[in-house]
Design brief:
The chain is mainly beta. It has one domain (26-183): Calycin beta-barrel core domain (Lipocalin), CATH 2.40.128.20. 11% of the residues lie in helices and 50% in strands. It has two helices and eleven strands. The protein has helices spanning 8-19, 29-38; strands spanning 40-48, 58-68, 74-83, 86-97, 101-108, 115-117, 127-128, 133-141, 144-156, 159-167, 174-183. It has an eleven-stranded antiparallel beta sheet, covered by helices on one side.
């Protein structure tokens, strides 16, 4: 009887192809594109108009940190700011759902439940066209419907603008918040 020797790697490859094993999932192009556009640390200057949570308006200052989640399947955001409405701490997660498109959950210290889908289902998720990220939804407040439109636009390697407009459906929206973000560069490492 003749003995046959198989090297482990080709046998594993053969078994994988015979069994129909699928290749590991890869991050979506949409998430890869978002990560490429926004990853990094940003210093923010925030202008609040006299409406919504800031009846006296005012200026806020803070930081945003965007980074890829494990395996690059999500875009994670850490947010901290001192605003006219108080000190805010937030965490966001954006991911791609094959059936529903881009999805987003937002957790912030002013939410009674801590975290919410943003926009809430069944409303459509955020839209990313490679240049601008837009989150728009309707909500009810004080028995009145309101439209919330948040946009991250004018994205450049060193800066971006984030705006929030609020208003009634079928009416022009009013600017509540404008954030100007500037990239924070890591300090130079001595000897490099």
């Amino acid at each position: 009887m003749r003995s046959v020797y198989f090297r482990k790697i080709p046998v594993l490859l053969l078994l994988a192809s015979v069994s129909g094993a699928q290749q590991p999932a890869q991050p979506s192009p949409q998430i890869k594109s978002l990560i490429a556009a926004l990853a990094g640390r940003w210093s923010t200057t925030e202008r609040y108009e006299k409406m919504y949570l800031t009846p006296n308006g005012g200026i806020g200052k803070g930081t945003q940190f965007f980074r890829a989640g494990p395996g690059g399947f999500t875009l994670l955001e850490d947010y901290h700011s001192k605003t006219p409405a108080g000190e805010l701490f937030g965490v966001g997660i954006l991911w791609w759902d094959e059936t529903q498109g881009l999805q987003h959950i937002w957790c912030i210290n002013v939410y009674p439940a801590g975290c919410e889908m943003f926009p809430p289902p069944p409303q459509p998720g955020p839209k990313w066209d490679g240049k601008q990220l837009v989150i728009q939804f309707e909500q009810e407040q004080d028995r009145k419907k309101l439209v919330w439109r948040e946009a991250v636009s004018n994205i450049k390697p060193e800066s971006f603008t984030q705006t929030v407009d609020i208003g009634e459906p079928d009416h022009p929206l009013n600017r509540w918040l404008t954030i100007h973000a500037t990239r924070i560069h890591a300090p130079a490492t001595p000897g490099k």
